[in-house]
Each structure stands twice: as structure tokens, then as C-alpha cells.
Specification:
Structural class of chain A: alpha+beta
Number of helices of chain A: 12
Number of strands of chain B: 10
CATH topology of chain B: 60s Ribosomal Protein L30, Chain: A
Shape of chain B: globular
CATH architecture of the largest domain in chain A: 3-Layer(aba) Sandwich
Structural class of chain B: alpha+beta
CATH superfamily of the largest domain in chain A: CheC-like
CATH topology of the largest domain in chain A: Chemotaxis protein chec
Number of domains of chain A: 2
Oligomer: heterodimer
Helix content of chain B: 10-25%
Largest interface: A-B, 75 and 63 residues
Radius of gyration of chain B: 18 Å
CATH architecture of chain B: 2-Layer Sandwich
Largest sheet of chain A: 14 strands, antiparallel
Number of helices of chain B: 4
Radius of gyration of chain A: 21 Å
Order of helices and strands of chain A: EHEHEEHHEEEEHHEHEHEEHHEEHEEH
CATH class of chain B: Alpha Beta
Chain lengths: 396, 191
């Protein structure tokens, strides 16, 4: 089974349309303007997804599908953010169930209409079923048994109030994957200039799963290296491989000031890696690494410390890839950045966008216990080089 | 209608469009444009045009460049957030013109024209195009240079700019046509 990553891009755009319809419906219902900030496709095993939903309560709706797509689709809100959102509704708690059902139905309807158009086949949708679920129970039937699902996540932001949350769409994996494979040609035509007719962007599905695990391993290595250098206990909070429109990445990093390091990767795949801390976290980590308190929180001493830390984290990250992919990857010296988060990452996105519109983003949140520090690692590999390396991975 | 919905569903079935889902027109006109009449967010590789009092905003400019075009007499304004200098000849420029400076400015002028602006009365304000990193061979300055060339060819004067250096910027285009540029440290100025 091969997945064309450009077809995945087309799927992502369909998911984004669904999310925009959901945002519009929520805006009408709550009187609060909402915009879709980012939509990404996670390629994850059922086990990974179960882990990432562990300890979370979700509410949402599920619909059964017949026709052009068979299976089940689910739209879920985190219960905590859903409460905040629904508190805006007139009618209070009694509205919750019907509002969630309506919003879910609209979002899934938009999502599935896009698919039906794409396929040229009607998709029948059963009436929406409201649910409240603990942990991985939110996932569609069969997601945990198979070797993976695609999870579409859209982050919505209120433009005037401090409210942001995510919605998730989980098309059933089997038929959905068949579609991605079957629709390779039209997706490639729509996917952008980089296809060029010759470069393959189809990769074995199993390799994507492997790479997703690899991303986790790289994150764990990076966290271990922080622990080694700072003596602080660290853990990986979230680590996922996602496929996103590159233009959405800066919005995801956000407009808060960040400090950290960026690296250029050379080899197979090449690309960029950015390690970004919010300012207070950067200062706290640098402080923990330095023998004495620095004169200024993010001055030269802190910069040197963060560069040194970035070096070992990046090595930890890419060593794992190179081992599994059987390729050689090196990284440039660190370049220190300290500015609006989105601005620091925009040149990396621009450079990659010369060749591709969508990219694999490995985003990892590493938390340092005790000092309340957190950093996000964005790995942005060249799509075609990654596809080639993943393809080789499945060679006998 | 491409799918059927049971009668047992909620009262208001969703409005839907039947546009081609792959070539999403939202990418061309700015996805959030219709969401908020008071404040329109312009994402990376997007543009938006308004003929009312809405404030157009775009955030996190690094090497990207923001081009604000205004026809004061017609009260029509537009904002572009372009990522790369040259889209001409690229196939993606057709589906996403606002990703590039040249095709983006062309689209923006076209959109303003459609909204009632006179292209001969337009004036431009430019922000961004920073050289954030040594790693990424001067994409910011190349963006700024391309903006100058394209606006010059279109006969649109640049009346103010805040470009270059190694500093991120967030901008908002007010209804009076001034572009407010804010840096990471919170310092703001209207150009």
C-alpha cells in the first residue's frame, strides 16, 4: 500500500474546508468570530493515537458512511474547550447536546461533501450520534485494531476573545487509505509544481508509520539530551508526525516572542529544524545550564547555552532518523533566533515552499519539570527526499 | 447535492458549495475574509480586499512581505502576505497566486479593481522582508526587491515602507489607509 503525499495534501484541503464550515457555524451559534488557524493530517498508529488521547475527555458526534466512502467519521472537541465554547451559547447546558450535534453535523457534512466531489460519488451519511467519550474511546471503530488511521486536526481561534481549541476528524482508515492510494494521479496534478512528472511522492503506508515512530524516538532522544545537559527532569508531552500546508506553520508557532535555535539539515532528507522556547522557558533553561545567573535573561551567555543545547538536541533528533532510514544526515551550526515565533520560522517555510506546498512537520513538545519550561521542535524535511528515503526503507 | 442527509438530522442542514474541492478558492482570496467583518486576518500566502471599515491584519512577518494597497478616494483597501519573490511560470501560482510577490500583487490589484478601486489611484505601503536568518539566502531582501519591481511596473507608488533588518513584524491596515507595524518588543509605528 502506497500513499501519495500529494493526495494527502488534497485530503487535507478537504478537511480544512470542513473545518471552515464548522467555524462558520460556531461563529453563528456563539456570536464569537472564529477562524481556522491550521489544519493538519496526522499519520499515526492506533496505539499512538490512543496514547495522545489518554486522559482526555471528548465530546462530539459520529456518523456512519455509505456509498463513495464506507466507514465512520467522528468529530470531537476536547471536553474542556467545548465547555468554554458552549458557555457562550444562550440556553446554557441544555443547549450543549444539540449545539454539538449541529456543529458536528455541519463540519462532517462539509468535509464529506468535499470528498464526494473529489470522488464523483455520493456519500450517504447516517444521522449524527452524540457521544461523550473517555480517552481513546473517541476513535472510530476499528482504528485501534488496524495499523493506523489518519487524523485531521484543525485549530480554531477566536479573533476577538482568548479562546482556541481543536476539532478532530477521523475518517475510517481502511477505505480512506484506499482512496488516497487510488486517487494518486488527480491529486498529483492538483498538488503543485514540484511533482514535475518524474519525482515520486508515493510512499509505503507502513513506512509512514515507521517514520512516525521515529519522530517519537527522536523527540525522546532530544529530551534525554536536555536532561543530560541541564540536570533537569524532562519528558516528551506530545510528539506527532503531521502533514500540513506549509503556509499554516507560522500561524501554528504563533505571535508570542520565542527564543531558540534553527538548523539546516543536509543529507537525505535535507530540510530544517527549529527548536523554539517561549521567552520565559528559554531564560529558565539557560539559567539552569549556566554556572551563575546571567546578567540579562536572554543575553550572550544564554544565547551560547541555548545554542549548545540546540546542538545536542538536534543531534539526538536526527541520529535516530539516519539510523532507521540508513542515510547520512548532518546539520549546520546553530543559528540563534529571538523574535516573534511565526517570524523566526517564516524564512524556513519560504525556502521549503520553493519546492513544495505541503510538508511533513514533526512537532514535539518537550517539558522540563520543576522549572516550568517547555519547548517546541519543528522538523521540516524536504518532502521528496523524505519520500525517497521512506521508499528505500521498505526495500527488502 | 452530493450526499444524502437523514430526515432525523438537526434542523438546519449545512449550506454547502459545490466548488472544486482541490483548487480551493479560499486560498486565493484569504480564508478568513468572510468570517469577521470587523477584523480580517490574512494568512501566509493569502490576500484580502475590503471596501468597508474592516481592519486587515497579518501577523508574524519574517522574510515574508506584506503589501498594502489603498485607493483612498474609493475607500477600497487590500493586503497581501507573500512568501516568495517570483511565481510567474510556476503552476502553483495559478491556484495560489498570493504565495508569490509578483502574482500576488497582480491578484491584489485585480481584486481592488473589482471592488471599485481605480488602479491608477493606488498607493502602496510595504512591510516585512526581514533577513531573519543567515541560513536562508536573503529571501527577505529578494522579496522586497521584487515588490519594488512589480509595483514600479504597475505604476503604483510606494509611499512608505518598513522593511529589512532582522526583525519580525505584525501589521494591520487601518480604515484610514495607514499601515501600523508592530515589532516583537511591542513597539508600534504607523506608516
Amino acid at each position: 500500500m502506497r500513499v501519495d503525499v500529494r493526495a494527502l495534501g488534497a485530503c487535507n484541503r478537504l478537511a480544512e474546508r470542513g473545518a471552515k464550515q464548522a467555524a462558520g457555524a460556531l461563529s453563528d451559534l456563539t456570536g464569537t468570530d472564529l477562524a481556522v488557524e491550521v489544519t493538519g493530517a496526522s499519520v499515526a498508529s492506533g496505539e499512538d493515537l490512543a496514547e495522545s488521547f489518554a486522559g482526555r475527555e471528548s465530546i462530539g458526534v459520529s456518523v456512519g458512511l455509505r456509498g463513495g466512502l464506507d466507514g465512520e467519521a467522528v468529530l470531537a472537541f476536547d471536553a474542556v474547550t467545548a465547555d468554554a465554547l458552549l458557555s457562550l451559547l444562550p440556553g446554557g447546558q441544555s443547549m450543549e447536546r444539540s449545539a454539538v450535534t449541529e456543529v458536528g453535523n455541519i463540519a462532517l457534512g462539509g468535509f464529506l461533501d468535499g470528498w464526494a466531489n473529489y470522488l464523483g460519488k455520493a456519500i450517504d451519511m447516517s444521522p449524527p450520534r452524540y457521544f461523550e467519550a473517555d480517552g481513546a474511546a473517541v476513535l472510530p471503530d476499528g482504528a485501534l485494531a488496524g495499523d493506523g488511521v489518519f487524523l485531521f486536526e484543525s485549530r480554531l481561534d477566536a479573533t476577538t476573545t482568548d479562546l482556541d481549541f481543536s476539532i478532530y476528524m477521523l475518517p475510517d482508515s481502511g477505505p480512506f487509505r484506499d482512496l488516497i492510494v487510488g486517487k494518486t494521479a488527480p491529486a498529483a496534478a492538483a498538488g503543485g509544481e514540484a511533482a514535475g512528472g518524474t519525482a515520486s511522492t508515493a510512499v509505503p503506508y507502513e513506512s509512514l508509520s515507521t517514520f512516525s515512530s521515529l519522530a517519537k524516538k527522536g523527540s525522546a532522544n532530544a529530551a534525554d539530551n536536555i536532561a543530560m545537559m541541564t540536570g533537569l527532569e524532562t519528558s516528551v508531552d506530545v510528539s506527532r508526525l503531521r502533514f500540513v500546508p506549509l503556509a499554516d506553520v507560522p500561524a501554528e508557532v504563533g505571535t508570542e516572542p520565542h527564543a531558540g535555535t534553527v538548523f539546516e539539515l543536509q543529507g537525505e532528507p535535507s530540510g530544517y529544524l527549529a527548536i523554539l522556547f517561549e521567552e520565559s522557558s528559554a531564560a529558565a533553561v539557560a539559567d539552569a545550564m549556566l554556572p551563575m545567573e546571567p546578567d540579562e535573561p536572554l543575553g550572550d551567555m544564554a544565547e551560547n547555552a541555548l545554542c549548545e543545547l540546540g546542538n545536542v538536541m538536534t543531534s539526538g533528533f536526527i541520529d535516530g532518523w539516519a539510523n532507521v532510514l540508513g542515510t547520512s544526515i548532518t546539520h549546520s551550526p546553530p543559528e540563534f533566533v529571538h523574535d516573534i515565533g511565526a517570524s523566526t520560522i517564516s524564512p524556513l517555510v519560504a525556502k521549503l515552499s520553493e519546492r513544495q506546498d505541503y510538508g511533513f512537520v514533526i512537532d514535539t513538545a518537550i517539558e522540563t519539570e520543576g522549572i516550568q519550561a517547555r519547548c517546541d521542535v519543528y522538523a521540516l524535511p524536504d518532502e521528496r527526499e523524505l519520500a525517497r528515503a521512506l521508499d528505500h526503507l521498505s526495500d527488502p | 447535492m452530493t450526499r444524502s442527509l437523514s430526515d432525523d438530522g438537526p434542523d438546519d442542514p449545512p449550506e454547502r458549495t459545490e466548488s472544486d474541492a482541490v483548487a480551493d478558492p479560499a486560498a486565493v482570496t484569504g480564508g478568513a475574509a468572510s468570517d469577521d467583518p470587523g477584523r480580517i486576518k490574512v494568512g501566509v500566502g493569502e490576500l484580502a480586499v475590503t471596501a468597508d471599515d474592516a481592519i486587515l491584519t497579518t501577523s508574524g512577518l519574517g522574510s515574508c512581505v506584506a503589501v498594502a494597497l489603498v485607493d483612498r478616494r474609493a475607500g477600497v483597501r487590500g493586503l497581501l502576505h507573500a512568501m516568495l519573490p517570483a511565481g510567474e511560470g510556476r503552476t502553483t501560482a495559478a491556484s495560489r497566486p498570493a504565495k508569490y510577490v509578483d502574482t500576488g500583487i497582480d491578484s491584489l490589484i485585480g481584486g481592488l479593481d473589482d471592488a471599485g478601486a481605480d488602479p491608477r489611484r493606488l498607493e502602496a505601503r510595504v512591510a516585512g522582508g526581514a533577513e531573519m536568518l543567515d541560513l536562508t539566502d536573503a529571501v527577505g531582501p529578494r522579496n522586497v526587491e521584487r515588490v519594488g519591481e512589480v509595483l514600479d511596473a504597475a505604476g503604483v507608488p510606494i509611499v512608505a515602507s518598513d522593511v529589512g533588518d532582522a526583525v519580525g513584524r505584525t501589521v494591520r491596515l487601518r480604515s484610514d489607509g495607514r499601515l501600523v507595524v508592530r515589532a516583537a518588543d511591542g513597539f508600534e509605528r504607523a506608516i
